[in-house]
Design goal:
Blueprint: H1 2-7, E1 10-18, H2 29-32, H3 34-39, E2 43-47, H4 54-57, H5 63-72, E3 77-78, H6 85-97, H7 103-119, E4 139-144, H8 145-149
Parallel strand pairs: 1-2, 2-3
Antiparallel strand pairs: 1-4
């Protein structure tokens, strides 16, 4: 995505992508794209921290753990859907209780979802819900470098 943009004289200000505990088990934005965005100082908008609720159906992670994981990544912001006061309270609680996670804690959290990803026991086996969107169609605001020079 960044290479294609650069070849066409575009620069991304921000990129929006799914970042969740299942992303690490597929074509991972967190592992493959996020470090490059940080290196290039491009803002990161994390989304789908609970994969539209599918992660919660697994009973492997809680909503707070999902939000803490996403907040632990080098994002500019993590967006989450809020369609009730309960969900608003949940988001506020996640922010209030968030502390940077150690590598060990991250590994333990990911180990709880690894088996679900490998087995394909439920809808978690549908990677299109997490991170197989081709980089060429990732969301992001792009501006032409030529336009910025005028």
């Amino acid at each position: 995505m960044l290479k294609v943009a650069s070849e066409r004289d575009f620069a991304f200000d921000t990129v929006q992508m799914p970042l969740n505990v299942m992303d690490a088990h597929y074509r991972s934005f967190g592992k493959e794209v996020l470090p490059e965005l940080v290196r290039k100082k491009i803002g990161v908008i994390g989304m789908k921290s609970m994969a539209n609720g599918i992660l919660l159906k697994s009973k492997k992670v809680t909503p707070i753990e999902c939000l803490h994981y996403a907040l632990n990544l080098p994002t500019s912001v993590v967006v989450t859907g809020i369609d009730s006061m309960k969900m608003l309270d949940q988001g506020c609680e996640a922010v209030r209780t968030f502390r940077p996670m150690s590598d060990k804690k991250v590994r333990l959290l990911l180990s709880r979802t690894a088996l679900a990803a490998a087995n394909g026991d439920f809808e978690l086996s549908k990677p299109h819900l997490f991170s197989t969107v081709p980089p060429s169609i990732l969301s992001g605001w792009a501006r032409s470098r030529n336009d910025s020079k005028t």
